[in-house]
Amino acid sequence: MHAWIVGATGLVGKSLLEALLAEPRVERVTAIVRRPLERADPKLDVLTADFDDLEGALSGKAASAGFCCLGTTIKKAGSQDAFRRVDHAFPLASDEPARPREPESSWW
Asked: DSSP string covering 1-54, please?
């Protein structure tokens, strides 16, 4: 299985990253991050991306499972708009390219 994590540098993302790297059924993990990741592992690929263009950064990439570990507080974000970007817009942008595609059925 190939999993990717959007937001692997935060509290939840770091914990999930460690769990996925320790899981024998996971062959590869791609961490999509805004800033460098201070973690190395043979199973780990790191993609530093501009989260304002997550769809572009993830275009053409696929994974068996996708995890979004983004989140902030209004105080830390600085405004309602910034909070909404992190907690709503970025997760939506990461969802579409991460969604596994079913092969087209030819039974009809």
From this structure: -EEEEE-TTSHHHHHHHHHHHH-TT--EEEEEESS------TTEEEEE--GGGH
The ranges assigned to domains in the chain are: 2-98
Domain 2-98 has CATH 3.40.50.720: yes
**Residues pairing with 4 in the sheet:** 30, 66
Six-digit token string for 59? 């275009």
**Model pTM score:** 0.72
Distances (CA, A) of 44 to 16, 34, 40, 63, 99: 13, 16, 7, 13, 20
Q: For the segment 34-54, what is each residue's pLDDT rounded down to a tens digit? A: 888 888 999 999 988 877 777
Closest CA to 11 of 54, 76, 72, 85: 72
